[in-house]
Amino acid sequence: MHTAAQERIIRPARNIMGSLRLPGDKSISHRYAMLSAFAEGVSRFTNFSTGADCASTLACMEALGAKVHKLEDGTIEVTGVGGRVTESNAPLECGNSGSTMRMISGLLAAQQGRFTLIGDDSLSRRPMERIGKPLTEMGARLTLTEGHAPIVIDGTKLHSIDFTPPVPSAQVKTCVLLAGLQTQGTTTVREAVRTRDHSELALRAFGAKIARAQASVSIEGPQTLRGIDAVVPGDLSSAAFFMCAAALFPNSGLLLDSLGLNPTRAALLDVLTALGVHIAVLNLEEVHAELVGTVQVSAPAGGMGSTEISGSLAAQLIDELPVLAAIGPYTSGGIRIRDAKELRVKESDRIALVAKNLRAMGAEVEEFEDGLDVPGGQTLHGATIDSGGDHRIAMAFSVAALRAEGETIIQGAESAAISFPEFFNLLDLVAER
Known about the structure:
Shape: globular
CATH topology of the largest domain: UDP-n-acetylglucosamine1-carboxyvinyl-transferase, Chain
Structural class: alpha/beta
Strand order of the largest sheet: 16-17-15-2-24
Oligomer: single chain
Number of helices: 15
Helix content: 25-40%
Number of strands: 24
Low-confidence stretches: none
């Protein structure tokens, strides 16, 4: 999907006020799309993610024999293949979505047939050896192209393994669990640092038995999945941008409705609270084992303090780090980020781009191999931002621009539409100018 390059002008705001309901969580939408398409029967999802990445997952599953219908009210209806996919005669196009490529590989490794997975230029540069290793250990026949996509999978019977990923990754864990779902015996993934558990919760929702211990997760195979009806909670990673925007203005008041508050994702709330931001969670409930609630955000009257993000916290917050770094100059004591080397192999080198764009706005920032030091108490001015075609960079600096002096131009603003097409409209809705 190639969108013409777009620029977006962001003008400074006076305040952030209002209430928003955000599109469905991407992580959950990916998993619901994959599992419903693989399950028996029909599933229905409301508030499914509107991002292009989740559309890539649905399109791949459709190419593998699932039936996908979008109803007039926006509900997505999926009729599954009952555990048996059909070989696709064309390559499976994963677009820009690492989640699609890494997770679907686990599903296909145990199926019959030959499958080729391809992606766009950015995805073709991202490391795929991390799924190649455990799948090969299970007996899978797959060929990577110099450690990257395209990936060719010749489906075959697998055997169960006990695996410890060298780098904690929810995508790698999911890939192994989806292969284990179809494999005789018990497949275990061990984690020194707990990663997002959406896959475990989704597998359970679809009827799979899965065992969780302190530092591992195990699945018995083979098992059959059954379709479900579900409302996808609002996306917390998307909410991060609005929460950080609200944190910039002392009289702000933002209400985020029906937001996914999975504990393995909610570290952002802890970091904002540590910065002094007031966060209240109202009417918390459980839906298909996922926690959902309404979140109220207001900034501290005296402005934000300072914080350090490192160790397992950096791994949990990997997607939110760019926007936290982007608001760092507006804190009183700055933000220090370490142990986040993974940021260099995302859709772009996010550490380098955050540093480059903060400097363009007149900020002082120190760049490290695995993070950044962003001093506080700085005044930023509008600038031309190079998003590097990376959605999170485009959105992070749209937030930083709200408190800068003068206008900011975001180059490559169309990249935001990949993950979050409504972003700029929703930002305009709550930014008082």
